[in-house]
Amino acid sequence: MEHYLSLKDIDSLPNWVAEAKSLKANPLHYKSLGAAKTICLLFFNNSLRTRLSTQKAAMNLGMEVIVMNFGSEGWALEYGDGTIMDQGTSEHIKEAAQVVAQYCDIVAIRAFASLTDREKDEAEVVLNGFKKYAGIPVVNMESSVGHPLQSLADAITLSEQNTKEKPKVVLSWAPHPKALPHAVANSFVEMMHLQDAEFVITHPEGYELSPEVTKGAKIEYDQEKALEGADFVYVKNWSNYKDYGKVLNQDPKWTMNAKKLGNAKFMHCLPVRRNIVVADEVLDSSQSLVIEQANNRTYAAQIVLKKLLEGLNNKTSNTLKTEK
Amino acid sequence: MEHYLSLKDIDSLPNWVAEAKSLKANPLHYKSLGAAKTICLLFFNNSLRTRLSTQKAAMNLGMEVIVMNFGSEGWALEYGDGTIMDQGTSEHIKEAAQVVAQYCDIVAIRAFASLTDREKDEAEVVLNGFKKYAGIPVVNMESSVGHPLQSLADAITLSEQNTKEKPKVVLSWAPHPKALPHAVANSFVEMMHLQDAEFVITHPEGYELSPEVTKGAKIEYDQEKALEGADFVYVKNWSNYKDYGKVLNQDPKWTMNAKKLGNAKFMHCLPVRRNIVVADEVLDSSQSLVIEQANNRTYAAQIVLKKLLEGLNNKTSNTLKTEK
Amino acid sequence: MEHYLSLKDIDSLPNWVAEAKSLKANPLHYKSLGAAKTICLLFFNNSLRTRLSTQKAAMNLGMEVIVMNFGSEGWALEYGDGTIMDQGTSEHIKEAAQVVAQYCDIVAIRAFASLTDREKDEAEVVLNGFKKYAGIPVVNMESSVGHPLQSLADAITLSEQNTKEKPKVVLSWAPHPKALPHAVANSFVEMMHLQDAEFVITHPEGYELSPEVTKGAKIEYDQEKALEGADFVYVKNWSNYKDYGKVLNQDPKWTMNAKKLGNAKFMHCLPVRRNIVVADEVLDSSQSLVIEQANNRTYAAQIVLKKLLEGLNNKTSNTLKTEK
Fold it and tell me: Where does the Aspartate/ornithine carbamoyltransferase Asp/Orn-binding domain start and stop, copy by copy (chains A, B, C) (predicted)?
């Protein structure tokens, strides 16, 4: 694996989940793997879980960690090819990516969707810019279209909690006062494609995610029907995809509550708005897995970094062999 | 000790001060105590001394340190019970506190008073929220009502500098153009309650601190009279407590100067406004202890973290015993 | 060497460059030199290269690193002597510098020129304040008038790339939409004074740098003539020095391009505005050394910190001898 940009970079999800669970049982077992290796975490947006868990994961592997709020501490970046840079941007991604790579072995990046220009968001200029120019492994800490560290943590959580051969998992849209990105929902759907489960997506009509992402997945507009017999309910708001980035629906009847949830386990990536997305009674019940999901963020990041470090070490040892 | 939220968490101030002084003599003696332990420092407000000294203390104990400006880098927190979160706040303290606790062993928090709503400030929602929900030791890096790391450093400084059996210590209010919190003054008074000293508080009439804090302490409105024969003078501004958070007095006759100070030692927590709170002649004289106080912040934080780490280790070893 | 404030602090540039190149060949060779030593990096302005490379250099030497955005995370500083601090500043440099020194062994500072008041900028109040009051080694991470870590990296790059006994090096002004400081240009000129090279500065008439800096250097207003036979062309914008901080010229004929560059190598400190300062064709060609310059920032910082650490260790061992 060269990068961790999306779930497509995982060769075998069951193997990764198994290995992550063994890291969780013994987090410091590979403390020497990252010795003398540095990771830069570059934040173009706010972060709590991702910031702390990725640092923690890197430290568990013995890496040096440099954290930078690129947006406020660095220079405004230009992404266009051939641009005459006489406006607000001070540095081109071509230089920035190569420069960052001089000081670290792995770079992890968070750059949210703008939610104003769909085409631009889907081009993922920040992540792809670093991928193209940095020449070192790049980790996606949530981009415009995906949050694969979150969905890997979700896969770990599902694996820990599931007791059935083929559980029923429902992704249920929820209302929210602000326009939120599609990244978490997208990556969750992609992750479910790799699971042996009955998977249903439910949301108001018109709130369809990208058809490319949901291709082959079952969509049921009737929330009640979708939730019938669910073992796990993953609740998440996203803004409209067709009328891109708009909040067209805030209908409280989509809010998750105890009655709707039934006996299912409740999942959410956090942060979550209480009594808008989900009722207190659910979050405060033992059916909620949200804290365990947050905990598993560390081991999701740690398995990703472990794979990338092993890749770097193999590369070095191959180079050494060739040089002989 | 489970947490370090106020001076009430200290079992014996003399013992702590003695132990802090021995840490100061040999700061790296317990370098292995914090191995594989992580502290998160969460700042909801600006900080210089606290930020640097607490990091330094944690590093002296071999801990991993994660620093986060929660206000600007994280999500706006909700503290209300049962709130329908359709306004500005994105995450509830219930989740935030539990989540942070997944990534560290100790959490330290700075959250200043708003100085607009006394009742709310005294409820200390941030600190108490983390205490209630995090399930790990919480350290107060200055809350609405107290700054116990500062007053512990002050106790160390007093102990180092005092030559008398029962010194006279005066807390003297000073003018200031901006409304400042009561935290430092409160904790200093609480600390003086634990000292064998003649303690006097002096301030303009109407500038009384919380009666709960000053209960049993001598208050003398005549500054000159209060300062007579003082060995240590601790100068500090605070805004009005009754007319909460207001600046009702900026009378320069309360500014500390060499004449008033006499032969006493001068103390202040810093930052200090020169020639408003105290004259240059005092700060630049050998009677000023302010830099030594700042230096002792490291060892105050270090003794606190040492006690908490020992608590964690005992807990682990008790758990292991029980499991047998 | 007590501090690293400008190139004047280097005893022998050729020796330093040679030593930096040997650090580059084996970056972790002195990993134990910085054990139990802490560096504080204080940023009053934005930074990418300096932030990352100086951290990396310190970590390569085994130091503990504390990074602080002083401007946004700390308190507004006062620099005036005898000021009555009743305005916007909360803490005097006298206290701030001494306090920071309680928590670290070396302090590194970035504080840009204001470009509004030349006299004030040239007084370098931040850097000189720390130098005067901190009592520990101070490193200049770009001040109002100099950027000696950059020019040391440039010297390393020149040494690696140069194949001639006496190369021709040209510093060529470039247009820019915003007012930029003189620090990089100043330090580059100072560094070239220490080189055995034919050195020419070219810029529009009226764009002279400080005469004190360029004293003895050849200035040629005709860019084409200046560039004739050049081996290295260092391109950099600076705002007007006489009409201080003004942008009086944005003439695109000063933009560097492939034709003008000829067979010379291209250098720039970055960040660079593409197609304003320099054409894409130059930056994207193999003649560009900008990424190598950025890479050498690590080893420039590392040789500086190594010298300072050795100084600290000598001081300690001398003190120990005296105490015997």
Answer: 184-305
Residues B179 and B268 in one domain: yes
CA of A310, closest CA in chain C: separation in Å? 21
Residue of chain B nearest C90, judged by CA positions: B273
Mutation choice for A interface testing from C24, C26, C29, C52 by most A CBs within 10 A: C52
- Which residue has tokens 């003008």? C260
B257 and B153 within one domain: yes
Q: How many CB pairs under 8 A join A and C?
A: 87
Residues of A in contact with C297 (CB under 8 A): 102
Of B107, B218, B212, B116, which Cα lies nearest the Cα of B170? B218
- Give φ, ψ of A123 to 5 degrees: -75, -15
A288 CB-side CA count, 13 A: 22
Q: Is residue A2 part of a domain?
A: no
Report the alpha-carbon distance of residue C276 to residue A193 in Å, rounded. 48
Tell me how close the Cα of B312 comes to any Cα of chain C, in angstroms.
25
The 10s digit of each residue's pLDDT in B104-146 is 999 999 999 999 999 999 999 999 999 999 999 999 999 999 9
Query: Could you tell me whether strands C168-173 and C138-140 are parallel, antiparallel, or unpaired per DSSP bridges?
Result: unpaired
How many whole angstroms separate alpha carbon A28 and alpha carbon A24?
Answer: 9
On whether both A141 and A166 belong to a single domain, the answer is no
Does C84 contact B275 at a Cβ distance shorter than 8 Å? yes
User: What domain range is C142 assigned to?
Assistant: 7-146+297-323
Tokens 């933009």, located at residue: C255
Percent residues over pLDDT 70 in chain B: 98
Q: Region of A120 please: left (phi>0), alpha (psi -120 to 50) or beta.
A: alpha
- The predicted-structure confidence for C124-152, as pLDDT tens digits, reads as follows 999 999 999 999 999 999 999 999 999 99
**Could you tell me if residue C2 is inside a domain?**
no
**B38 vs A49: CB contact, 8 Å cut-off?**
no
How far apart (Å, rounded) are the C-alpha atoms in residues A195 and A198? 9
A224 in contact with C, Cβ within 8 Å = no
The torsion of the CA quartet C312, C315, C316, C317, rounded to 10 degrees, works out to: 120
B80 touches A: beta carbon within 8 Å: no
Query: CB contact, 8 Å: A105 with chain C?
Result: no
**C122 and C245 both lie in a single domain:** no
What is the mean predicted confidence (pLDDT) over A194-200? 97
Q: Are residues B119 and B168 in the same domain?
A: no
- Does B2 reside within a domain? no
Rounded Cα gap, residues C252 and A85, in angstroms = 12
Does B131 share its domain with B194?
no
**CATH label of the domain that carries residue A210:** 3.40.50.1370
Are C284 and C318 members of one domain? no
Question: ipTM score here?
Answer: 0.96
Q: Over chain B, what is the mean pLDDT? A: 96
**Number of domains making up chain C:** 2
DSSP state of A6: S
Residue A152 touches chain B, beta carbons under 8 Å: no
Q: In A, which residues are within 8 Å of B94 by CB distance?
A: 283-284
Residue A220 falls inside a structural domain: yes
Burial class of residue B286 in the structure, from the number of CB atoms within 10 Å of its CB (0-12 exposed, 13-18 middle, 19+ buried): exposed
- At A265-305, the pLDDT tens digits run 999 999 999 999 999 999 999 999 999 999 999 999 999 99
Mark whether A214 and A91 lie in a shared domain.
no
| DSSP string over A42-100 | EESS--SHHHHHHHHHHHHTT-EEEEE-HHHHS--EE--TT----SS--EEHHHHHHHH
- In degrees to the nearest 10, what's the CA dihedral of A85, A86, A89, A90? 80
| CB nearest to C273's CB, from A38, A40, A85 | A85
DSSP result, B185-209:
HHHHHHHHHTSSSEEEEE--TT---
Tracing tokens 């083929």 back to the chain, one arrives at: A166
Q: Which of A38, A74, A84 sits opposite C56 (nearest CB)?
A: A38
